[in-house]
Write a structure and sequence with these properties.
By secondary structure, this protein is α/β, with parallel strands linked by helices. It is built from 14 helices and 13 strands.
Length: about 375
């Protein structure tokens, strides 16, 4: 079968590009696959981070792709559709995670010939930080696909609200496999300057308002001096508000800041240093951070938002807090360490890892196509 994938690939960095590289590699084992990439993914004004591109220390998979689609240039929409149609794929796979991509991806999909089926993988339907134009843009995009894969049940619910007759399956985010192995905790703590005997909490990933770092910082102020907090990730915008909370915290000396882009080579270091990863999110659908935590066997404490509960509570791989509240989160952290259940969570993660393979994901994708 001929499969075209239209999304971001190398040289773009980040979890979505890595996800796409993995499904490309897996599908290529049995099918003819071509990758169609962005020539420009976002205008700079929409990307406040350091760079959109892979850097020297990233373990990026170099997928051979055609960089053709500029999301800000409608003329490239026509060109992209023509190039894909010329190849005449049986299946076009796209990724959708924010409404900025709706005009470009939606247009390309609507130009496909009748023999090409379209399946879109949905990270989000409703953005974490919604804007007035999100709903009409997303409806336009959804109308161009034959079927969908959602990465959590909450995204499926959002999909049904906007497209009640949508054909879709729900399957969890597979595990990233390019980060390498976990380090010895003692060595990781030595390298990062973390006290070897402290109860160490990790907040990891892009720092955005909806991810609730401010809530975690306030929760951390309620803990005693046996705890340390490691914050590792690039701020999306100003970090001033967080610094103000840190400066006023009685525990500020035990908050370790690595507020920059964390390269792929550094990821094992941060996930090896901690006893638990905390996701204090105000909103979420699913989280690539939970997939990285699974890869490194690190239990999680998360708020009950979006698909996080189904990813953690049902398989018993961590603790779910009722809502994003500083008192509830600080109590959950205390209970996590007092309960002695960490090894129980780790064993459950090991069991779940076997289910979250890329081969299982692509098998479900092909089965969905075969049933269209």
């Amino acid at each position: 079968m001929k499969i075209a994938i239209l999304s971001c690939f190398y040289p773009y960095r980040g979890g979505i590009a890595q996800f796409n590289a993995n499904i490309y590699k897996e599908l290529s084992k049995e099918h003819s696959v071509r990758a169609f990439n962005f020539s420009r993914q976002y205008p700079s004004i929409l990307f406040p981070g350091k760079t959109q591109y892979v850097e020297e220390d990233d373990s990026a998979v170099k997928i051979d792709s055609l960089r053709v689609l500029d999301t800000a240039n409608p003329f490239t929409y026509i060109k992209t559709a023509g190039l894909i149609n010329r190849w005449q794929p049986d299946l076009l796979v796209m990724r959708y995670w924010m409404s900025w991509f709706a005009p470009s991806l939606g247009y390309v999909a609507k130009q496909m010939g009748p023999s090409t089926k379209i399946i879109s993988i949905l990270d989000n339907v409703i953005p974490h930080e919604p804007k007035i134009f999100d709903k009409p843009f997303t409806k336009y995009f959804l109308g161009a696909s034959d079927a969908f894969i959602v990465l959590s049940d909450s995204v499926g619910d959002d999909l049904k609200n906007l497209k009640p007759n949508a054909r879709f399956i729900s399957t969890p985010h597979p595990l990233y496999n390019h980060f390498g192995h976990k380090m010895e905790m003692s060595e990781a703590r030595r390298l990062l300057g973390i006290h070897p005997d402290k109860k160490t909490i990790l907040f990891f990933g892009l720092i955005r308002e909806y991810k609730g770092l401010d809530i975690l910082l306030k929760a951390f102020a309620n803990l005693d001096d046996t705890y340390e907090l490691v914050i590792a990730g690039e701020p999306y915008g100003s970090f001033t508000e967080y610094l103000s909370i840190i400066d006023s915290s009685p525990n500020r000396e035990r908050i370790k800041l690595f507020t920059r882009y964390i390269s792929d080579k550094e990821v094992p270091l941060f996930f090896s240093v901690a006893d638990v990863c905390v996701l204090p999110y105000r909103s979420a659908t699913q989280s690539g951070i939970s997939a990285i935590s699974y890869h490194f066997g690190l239990p999680m404490i998360t708020t009950d938002v979006g698909g996080l509960k189904e990813a953690i509570e049902n398989p018993g791989t961590g603790v779910v807090v009722e809502r994003p509240d500083e008192v509830l989160i600080s109590n959950a952290i205390k209970e996590f360490f007092a309960s002695g259940r960490r090894e129980h969570y780790v064993k459950n993660i090991e069991r779940e890892r076997e289910k979250l393979s890329w081969s299982n994901f692509t098998e479900k994708l092909i089965n969905l196509y075969n049933n269209l």
